Amino acid sequence: QGEGARAVPLSGHVGFDSMPDQLVNKSVNHGFCFNILCVGETGLGKSTLMDTLFNTKFEGEPTQHNQPGVQLKSNTYELQESNVRLKLTVVNTVGFGDQINKEDSYKSIVEFIDAQFEAYLQEELKIKRTLHSYHDTRIHACLYFIAPTGHSLKSLDLVTMKKLDSKVNIIPIIAKSDAISKSELTKFKIKITSELVSNGVQIYQFPTDDETVAEINSTMNGHLPFAVVGSTEEVKIGNKMVKARQYPWGTVQVENENHCDFVKLREMLIRVNMEDLREQTHTRHYELYRRCKLEEMGFKDTDPDSKPFSLQETYEAKRNEFMSELQKKEEEMRQMFVQRVKEKEAELKEAEKELHEKFDRLKKLHQDEKKKLEDKKKALDDELNMFKQKKTAAELLQNQAQQAGGSTTLKRDKERKNHFCYTSTMETFSSAHLLWKSQFIRFLPETVQPLLYNSLFFPQMLSQ
Ligand SMILES: Nc1nc2c(ncn2[C@@H]2O[C@H](COP(=O)(O)OP(=O)(O)OP(=O)(O)O)[C@@H](O)[C@H]2O)c(=O)[nH]1
Ligand SMILES: [Mg+2]
Description:
Blueprint: H1 19-30, E1 32-39, H2 46-53, E2 71-81, E3 84-94, H3 105-125, E4 141-146, H4 155-164, E5 170-174, H5 182-198, H6 211-221, E6 226-227, E7 234-237, E8 240-247, E9 250-253, H7 262-272, H8 274-296, H9 311-404, H10 410-424, H11 431-441, H12 449-457, H13 459-463
Parallel strand pairs: 1-3, 1-4, 4-5, 5-6
Antiparallel strand pairs: 2-3, 7-8, 8-9
Helix pairs in contact: 3-4, 7-8, 9-11
The structure holds guanosine-5'-triphosphate and magnesium ion (MG).
């Protein structure tokens, strides 16, 4: 306080003690959402219990026992109590425990829970996030319905709860507990608890760190698993209508704590710990999913020397790693491409060479054929010319022979004889020679003239 400083007295109430009220108002205006997953065998009373818990009739047809696998069916309802709005989602396991091989029954439940976490994570990672209006579908509570056998937990129950315990808040309940006697129920509860502990199954424990609810919560933790009875049927007891199940030997009142733990479940689930279940889902189960997922994607908070490593650094390191890998891959592909081109080129060259050789071979063959044909043509032309000459000469001679007729003399016969002897020795001759020789044949006797003409012009005929 400096000298001359003016002291300002408080003019009234400062007001930050109204922060909780502001928070409440904001939350009430915004409304709440709560998501329950009911896991249990078909017909164990899941739907009846939900109807009893929220005092309403949710839709839901009974399931057949012949489902090929486990499916998850979710329904969302808008409920209102006073001025508080609740968006309630009830997810049911359809066909759970109905298959002969139940080995994979838990898988679809795990996948469903993870899918809801993934959807939330994707929304969180968006650049433009709208988480305030986002419909959060993450499962806040899993009511695990145990059959009232009075013996012990089935392996299906143990395996499923073990697989789910790190992903969701499990509240085990003994369904249809009116089917089990009081003494058996106590033993059954102890047996279940010891089996869960010995198998390391972590069920949801009601929180005891908040003083206001620590006592009730720790007492309730001792009552787990709750033995419940569900019914929407109202029966008049005294002068009051109560929810109950009537049997020939008596009436089981759902809200009577001496008859079953329904009220305890309702108190713990809805009135006392609903917000804690929501919080645990976000801070424990979703956080674990998110961490594993980001680590899987290669994000880390520290580098190998345990020094803080920011998201930016992780991103850059990943980017560099990716780029160098990309370059390596690119180089590899380039090399492969060059290699393939070389191989293809060699293949094409080989094929080209073969084609050239084939072309040369064919060309030579063609030339030989052509030469042979030309020779043959030439021979035929010669023969044709010869034939034409012979034909002309023959025609000429025939004409002359006809003109000469029968005026032949002995003298001429003699001369012709001499000439015939001469001509028969000739092998080749021209048309001039033929003409000349034919002059002599004219003087021979008529009986021999045709024979001589034939021998002169068609020697082949005679030889045949
Ligand atoms: N004894 C007894 N019967 C019950 C109880 N709760 C429900 N039931 C009866 O069990 C039968 C099946 O109940 P649902 O609520 O349809 O069972 P569910 O688990 O929803 O069945 P699905 O949806 O087909 O898997 C009905 O006839 C109910 O009346 C209970 O606490 N005790
Ligand atoms: Mg049902």
